[in-house]
Specification:
The longest helix is centred in the N-terminal third of the chain and has 14 residues. The strands form 6 sheets. The protein has a 4-stranded mixed sheet with strand order 2-14-16-15, with helices on one face. By secondary structure, the protein is α/β, with parallel strands linked by helices.
C-alpha cells in the first residue's frame, strides 16, 4: 500500500534550534540483550522506544524475559525493567524481526541458549539481508539451525559449547557483536576470529565490548580481528542510555544547508557511538562545531541557502557507514565532486543504500556513481522530485535534508523514520519553527 508523500519543508532562513533526542538504538538493543542474559533484573533508563527496539523487546519476551514499563524522567516515554530469561526450557516461539539488523543478528545466539525451536522472520526487505554468517556460526557452536536467510529456525540447546570460532563478518559487524553479547553464557566462553577482506563499523564492536565491561565481562583482543570472552556471569545493571548520536546527523547537517546553528543537548563527552565522528566530518564540509556543557553545536554560517558552497570531501567512512546517507546528501551541495569509500557493506543494510542514493540523486539532478567500495557525488543543478525512502529511515531523513534548500522534494515514506526515531517529523518541523 503506497504511503502519503511528505513535502519536505524548505527552510525560510537560518536556523537557531536546540533539540533533545531519544536514546541510542544501538545501545538500547545491546543493553536489552545483556539484561535478558544477566544474573538479575536490570533497569534501562531513557531507552529508545521505536520500531527496532520494540521488536527487540517483543522478541526477548517471546523467549521468556520479563520486560515491563516503569515510570522514568525522560521526555520520550517510560523506562524498561528487564527480568532475565528463565533457566527452565520453554516452548516454540516465532519472532518478528521487522527490518532490524540488531534483532535478526543479536537474538539468534540468545535463542540458542533459551531452548525450544525459535522461528525468525521479518519484513520482505529483511529476507534479502545477509544472515548466513550467523546461522553458520551457531551451527559451528553445536546448535541446529534450519535455513540460512529469513525465515530460519534455531533449535535451542539450553547449553551452548562455545570455544573457538572463525567467521567472515565483512558484510556487518553485527555478527561479531551478536556473538560477543551471548558468549559469556557459553560453557567454554568464546574465542572469535574474523577472517575477511574488511571489518566495517569497528566502533560498534567497541560499543559492545564496553557494554559487556560495564556488566563485569572483560573481553580481550590480543590481535586485530580476534576477541576472547571468558565464560561467566553477566551482571545486572541500572544503566542510562545515551541519546542517539547517529539520529542527530541530519539535524546538525541542517545548519550547513539552511545556515545558522543547531544544538543537540545531552551530547556525551566520551562515547562509543559512531556519531562521535560528526564534528570532524561536518568540519570537512566547512562547518564549525563546538562541544561544551553537555551539548554539541554545529554552525553552518550563511549556509547553502545564504549562498555558501560546501567544500567537496574525500572521506573513508569505514568506521561510520551509517552516517553516509546524510553526508552524501550534503555532498550534493558542494562546490565540486566528493568521494566516499569504505562503505561497500551498505549494500546489505535496510536497502542497498548505494544504489538507492544514486537513483534518488539522479531524480533531482545530481549525478552519482557507485564504486566497488563507495560512491562519488558530482553536484548539478538540483530541482524537486520524488525521493525514495526504500523503507530505510536514513534514506528518508536524507531527502528531508536536501529539501531544506530544494523546493519540491517529495519523500515517499517519511514514516520509515519510525524505525529508530518516531518523532522525526515533529522534531524536524520544530527545528524549523
Amino acid at each position: 500500500m503506497p504511503h502519503p508523500s511528505y513535502s519536505a519543508p524548505v527552510a525560510s532562513g537560518p536556523i537557531d534550534a536546540r533539540l533533545s533526542l531519544p536514546g541510542s538504538k544501538s545501545l538500547t538493543n545491546r543493553e536489552l540483550v545483556l539484561a535478558a542474559l544477566a544474573d538479575g533484573p536490570s533497569l534501562l533508563r531513557r531507552p529508545l522506544r521505536a520500531r527496532d527496539t520494540e521488536l527487540m523487546v517483543e522478541a526477548l519476551r517471546a523467549l521468556g524475559a520479563g520486560i515491563e514499563d516503569v515510570e522514568g524522567d525522560g521526555d520520550f516515554g517510560a523506562d524498561w525493567r528487564v527480568v532475565p530469561l528463565p533457566r527452565e526450557s520453554r516452548g516454540a516461539a516465532t519472532l518478528d524481526v521487522g527490518l532490524a539488523g540488531t534483532v535478526m543478528r543479536f537474538v539468534p545466539p540468545v535463542a540458542a541458549l533459551a531452548g525450544g525451536a525459535t522461528v525468525f522472520d521479518g519484513d520482505a526487505a529483511a529476507r534479502r539481508r545477509p544472515m548466513s554468517t550467523m546461522t553458520n556460526a551457531i551451527r559451528a557452536l553445536g546448535v541446529e539451525v534450519d535455513g540460512d536467510a529469513l525465515p530460519f529456525t534455531v533449535h535451542g540447546a539450553r547449553s551452548v559449547r562455545g570455544g573457538e570460532l572463525t567467521i567472515d563478518a565483512s558484510s556487518s559487524s553485527q555478527f561479531v557483536s551478536g556473538l560477543l553479547l551471548a558468549a559469556p553464557r557459553f560453557a567454554e566462553g568464546l574465542v572469535l576470529r574474523h577472517e575477511g577482506e574488511r571489518l566495517p563499523s569497528l566502533p560498534h564492536i567497541e560499543m559492545t565490548i564496553a557494554c559487556l565491561a560495564a556488566r563485569g565481562v572483560a573481553v580481550t583482543s590480543p590481535d586485530e580481528g580476534v576477541w576472547i570472552v571468558p565464560p561467566g556471569r553477566i551482571g545486572a545493571l541500572d544503566v542510562e542510555i545515551e541519546p542517539d548520536l547517529s539520529n542527530a546527523a541530519p539535524f546538525l547537517a541542517a545548519a550547513l544547508v539552511a545556515g545558522g546553528r543547531v544544538v543537540i543537548a545531552g551530547w556525551p563527552g566520551r562515547t562509543t557511538q559512531v556519531g562521535a565522528h560528526l564534528p570532524r566530518l561536518f568540519e570537512a564540509f566547512g562547518g564549525r562545531s563546538r562541544l561544551a556543557d553537555g551539548a554539541l553545536s554545529v554552525d553552518g554560517g550563511d549556509g547553502v541557502l545564504g549562498g555558501a558552497r560546501l567544500e567537496p570531501v574525500d572521506l573513508d567512512l569505514g568506521e561510520a557507514g551509517e552516517l553516509a546517507p546524510t553526508l552524501v546528501a550534503l555532498a550534493a551541495f558542494a562546490s565540486g565532486p566528493s568521494r566516499f569509500t569504505g562503505i561497500g557493506h551498505l549494500r546489505g543494510h535496510e536497502t542497498d543504500r548505494l544504489a538507492a542514493l544514486v537513483a534518488d540523486l539522479a531524480r533531482i539532478g545530481v549525478r552519482a556513481q557507485e564504486l566497488a567500495d563507495g560512491i562519488v557525488v558530482t553536484p548539478g543543478a538540483m530541482h524537486g522530485g520524488r525521493w525514495g525512502a526504500y523503507e530505510d529511515h536514513r534514506m528518508a531523513t536524507s531527502g528531508a535534508l536536501i529539501g531544506l534548500a530544494v523546493p519540491g522534494v517529495e519523500v515517499d515514506d517519511i514514516g520509515s523514520t519510525a524505525k529508530t526515531l518516531p518523532e522525526f517529523r515533529e522534531l524536524w518541523e520544530r527545528m524549523l519553527a
